[in-house]
Design brief:
The protein is α/β, with parallel strands linked by helices. The protein contains 5 helices and 8 strands, in the order ββαββαβαβαββα. It folds into 2 domains: 2-55, Ubiquitin-like (UB roll), CATH 3.10.20.80; 75-164, 2-Layer Sandwich (Translation Initiation Factor IF3), CATH 3.30.110.10.
């Protein structure tokens, strides 16, 4: 950028995005300074390198903004976990089901974990029934990526949101 460009000639793009051609580096730097902008090397590997007249600080700000926006979209595939016990009450199950529904609507995968304590582990069938009930409740909005399975004192199941069809997406 600016005085850091060591080549004698550069291929210059003005601030409007139009190619001006090959010019001396000093001349391009003067043109950028006269407009109170920076001369930024865009493609350094070329001979002569491609440079553009732009506001470098504004460019960096917009780049960070794009990165933050892209980060938001990456976060959508994130895994959320909902934990419960095999002896959960009906009202508590309703609350947990609402949380699961919210996570699925935002496009997140949901891992449902049932923790067993002590002798509860010998009644794993109760946990499996509970997970099968939850799976049945969300069969229209989610598919089961990982069936219920027992790992020590925990039973887990993974739900992923179903992809919307093209007609449903157009209506929104």
């Amino acid at each position: 950028m600016n005085e850091g460009i060591r080549d004698k000639q550069v291929k210059l793009i003005n601030e409007e995005g139009k190619l001006q051609g090959i010019v001396e580096t000093g001349e391009a730097l003067l043109a950028a300074r006269s407009k109170q902008l920076d001369l930024v090397e865009i493609v350094p590997g070329q001979t002569p390198p491609l440079c553009k007249i732009m506001s470098y600080s504004k460019y960096r700000y917009e780049q960070k903004k794009r990165d933050r926006e892209a980060q938001k979209h990456r976060r959508m595939g994130q895994l959320k976990e909902v934990r419960m016990r095999s002896t959960i009450g009906s009202h508590d199950l309703d609350v947990k089901s609402r949380h699961i529904q919210e996570f699925l609507e935002t496009g997140r995968r949901v891992k449902i974990t049932i923790n067993f304590k002590g002798r509860e582990a010998s009644h794993a069938d109760l946990g499996r029934k509970l997970l099968e009930t939850i799976k049945g409740n969300f069969s229209s909005t989610a598919s089961c990526e990982q069936e219920p399975h027992l790992e020590g004192y925990r039973m887990t199941m993974l739900l992923v949101p179903k992809k919307k069809g093209r007609t449903e997406q157009k209506e929104e």
